[in-house]
Write a structure and sequence with these properties.
Length: about 400
Amino acid sequence: MNLLLWLSFIIPVVLLGFYFSAVIYGRLRPQQALRWGQQKASPHFDLIHDYKEVAILIACYRGAGTIGATVEAALKTGCDVYVVDDGSKQRKPSDPDIMPVDRTTEVAQKAGAVVLELAANGGKPKALFEAYYQLRLNQRYRAVAILDDDVTIKPNFIRRCLRKMTSEVAIAVGKNITWIPHEHRWNMWLAKRAFSYWNYQLVTRNLQSFFGVMNCISGSNSVYRTELLDQVLVEKTPYIVDDTFWVLETQRRNLGRIVYVPKAHAFLQDPTNFKDWYKQNLRWMWGTFQGVIGHRVGRRATKFDFAYMLLILQWIVYVLSAPVAVVVLAISAVVAPWMLLVYMAGYGVWVAAAAIQLRNVRLPLFIPAIIVSDFIYRFVFVHAFIKACKTPTVENCVWESPARIQRVA
């Protein structure tokens, strides 16, 4: 049993060791690393020097409580800001008989955005498609930053992204940071998400960005060249997560490089209760597995496929280690209690590092909650995989967003 427990820790560590070895190899022999697995030459784009050549586009549905702050933060970048209201005023059968008229459009206009109001709710991909072409953004700008309606970005967000958009880069991905208002400072789900973002971006996203093999982007805060959007932005994406389709199309068709910009900070509203946390994670992973199936990941001899299969291997180890760890830890609690201390210490060191960088002194107090939710997250993987096998595509990319915290503009 002790052997199984050690293997559940050692295998991920070995995989991480391979990752870092690859990084060192890439630093020492960059040309060899770049040539490995290269299919055809990536497109070369003209550099964008002026932030005024970038538009900010926000798709919003019944977001009157958050859109004002989002628009005001976006305007501080100096860019033109556009909001597409995805049929917020449309009545739905589930709406109560007496319901106030939605004010999303009015709030966005008052905050300073140019607003395109759609009559019916068709989902985020359709709304973005309509706005992109009706407002002629591809003819008037060279890049478009797509934000969610409850995301606030720093004033230097666009400038930070443009610095990383070299002639080969088609997408610049911002850094996700969980917004934790004072009244929710003790919320375990926000603490878990804050740690998860930090952990994922520090390891996986940085490494994938370095090697040009990113399989996941921040659909809520990324900058896209219009040359790319002309090719990947469609009315209906086949996956429940629209940006999963965009990134896989970009990688599969070699439409440009995708880079992570850790200095481009975006503050996100995340779920504050278990139900919303589970549903959101399930949708994200469902979309991820839909992409693996739909874009036939692992069936080509490319650098991207190899890296993705390595990631999938890590997922398998991550999921399968859960029952082993539970059994072994239960036995260790009786015969070798020190093993529990080792387990907790491992989490403690990593969470403490996150707390220092995120400047969240309360984060280590959530270690027990983070451990428990981490085990639950493994079940999300299994649930999402089964869901993707049953429903590999969707007719409409429409979903119910988690409850939002109102922000005063």
